[in-house]
Amino acid sequence: MCGIVGYVGNKASGDSKSIEVLLGGLKRLEYRGYDSAGIAVIDESGHIGTRKRAGKLQVLLDNLADQPLANGMTGIGHTRWATHGGPTDSNAHPHLSADGKLALIHNGIIENFAELRAELEATGATLISETDTEVAALLVGREYDRVTDLTVALRNVVARLEGAFTLLVMHENEPGVVVGARRNSPLVIGLGDGENFLGSDVAAFVEFTRRAVAIGQDQMVTIRPDSVEITDFDGNPVEADEFDIAWDASASEKGGWSSFMAKEISEEPEAVANTILGRVHDGLVSLKELEPIGDEALAGIDRIVIVACGTAAYAGMLGKYAIEEWSRIPVDVELSHEFRYRNPIITDRTLVISISQSGETMDTLMAVQHATKAGARVLSICNTQGATIPRESQAVVYTHAGPEVAVASTKAFLAQVTALYLVGLHLGKVRGTQTDEQIRENVIELQAVPEKIAEVLSVSQAEIGQLARWMTDTQSVLFLGRNVGYPVALEGALKLKELAYIHAEGFAAGELKHGPIALIEPGQVVIVVVPSPRDPHSLHPKVVSNIQEIRARGARVIAIAEKGDAAVLPFADEVIPIPLAGSLFEPFLAVVPMHIFGMELAAAKGLDVDQPRNLAKSVTVE
Questions:
Q1: Cβ(324)–Cβ(330) under 8 Å?
Q2: What is the CATH number of the domain that holds 402?
Q3: Segment 13-18 mean pLDDT
Q4: Taking the model in full, what pTM does it have?
Q5: N or C: which end of the chain has fewer CB within 10 A?
Q6: Given 2, 263, 411, 452, which residue is catalytic?
Q7: Which of 17, 320, 429, 617 is the catalytic position?
């Protein structure tokens, strides 16, 4: 959803630098929301100046270059993904109070805004936007006039709000103060020297500080240049834990790559390697992160439910194969947004594993809260330190993919699969379903994955790019896979939908003759994930037969197959080779061409690879 940043400083921290801090933060947060952007600054004369524009952040930057805004030491900024009201200048944030002395920005959805708007209009208020955010700005402005304390005014208003929100607010009468509040939407504090920061994630301020504090559910924060005060919504003081940000601002820059996605695909080997790093000792997996649950409790687990959305759900499907194989615990993979609405059967012997790159995915957060209330053990897999979902879970295994800016996930997906495999091997150890020798063999396979991904990138990228350029007029692509190849097919189809805006569907290859083969007509492109001829399930000849069946009906077949698989060559129009790997480890390699293909086809069509239309990186509302 939206990206937010707040800043307060003093003369010692740098004279009048709010605009630079806000725009730098918004640039790094643009992936969170990108149909309008705006800033508000209390200048040195004590007045609020605002500037906001529909369109990409560059539109705002160009406007500020032509018509500079007076700088100051207090400011808030916002980059928006539209919910209430379209992407227009008037709907962009910040929004002002009726007297123009208070500015407010907002992430999330205020579900009772229509009722509150009607209340305001009944008392003579004039609203100039279609947003729920302006309603909040007018309410806080009125409350401030009554109580003359910005923190108290915001506290009184949030008590009336329903839904998911993060609010930042500042007032001309209190320069050097920004107040924030959050419910079911992220907010992080950056701790500086004579300056402090707020952001929807640490990217907002990582250029200036590595010290951060995450704000909890239904909590507020008031930042001044030399102080940070955190309370709950009732005004009670709250202590929060500080953490260090593990990456710097340069990690979120393109570094010469054509897009963030191109950079992030190039980092896939590193994402897998870093997620393994420190979690293997003497050839065995040791996940100290699981200690809050405890090995005794894990040994007694009789069912695992993986909850996730989108790409993360496909990572969960791959994790299901590995965890069941190694731990012999039944695993279900459920879409987070469906999980809690069907009254799932959960006991204290159920382990719920949530997967979210951002740790703020609202549907997944709600599933975690539901599982916790039902008495399940809850483990999260997340890429973002201090995020809400890890904080509301009993244990967390952080992936170490580094910042992922492109909206469509690539390296984070592979890191999630890696983390799930580590969990599976750990469970196999504590349950005694895997011998040490078996675990070491699988660890060797897993540790070999980064180098093999690097080989796929070096060998196949140019070929896939050329293939994509030939296919810019393609209207539909089908994907087929079996066993662990099936989630890979689903992931490939999703990337094509997200990036190239064409019809794409993934199918289990065994389902072909149960319906999908009716879609095959001359020229239909089908990408097939071919299992290894060494596959222990003997699925290779079945998939080769599927290829023959669709070729006979005119399909154009692109096969992703193991190097040296001669049986595929006579029946595929194109073969993209991947290195040899064990059956459970092939998906790490087969999915990489899918990521490259989606990116290259979108680029060949002249589309925005990093920010696909209608999508945001973190979906923080249901």
A1: yes
A2: 3.40.50.10490
A3: 72
A4: 0.78
A5: C
A6: 2
A7: 617
Q: Could you give the CA distance from residue 100 to residue 320 in angstroms, rounded to a whole number?
A: 54
Three-state SS annotation for 270-320: HHHHHHHCCCEECCEECCHHHCCCCHHHHHCCCEEEEEECCHHHHHHHHHH
- How many structural domains is the chain composed of? 3
Strands 242-244 and 525-529: unpaired
Q: Is 617 a catalytic residue?
A: yes
Name the token pair of 153: 């005014």
Specify whether 415 is located in the same domain as 499.
Answer: no
Question: Can you read off the two tokens belonging to residue 388?
Answer: 């809400």
| Mean pLDDT over the full length of the chain | 92
Per DSSP (E only), the strands in 460-570 are: 476-481, 503-508, 525-529, 556-562
Full DSSP string of 380-403? EEESSTT-HHHHTSSEEEE-----
Same domain, yes or no: 232 and 340: no
Distance (Å) of CA 488 to CA 1, 13, 226, 413, 498 = 27, 49, 50, 11, 15
End-to-end, the C-alpha distance of the chain in Å comes to 11
Tens digits of per-residue pLDDT, 85-143?
778 999 999 999 999 999 999 988 888 988 999 999 999 999 999 999 999 999 999 99
Q: Is 429 a catalytic residue?
A: no
Domain membership of residue 274 as a residue range: 260-434
Dihedral sign (CA 57, 63, 64, 69) = negative
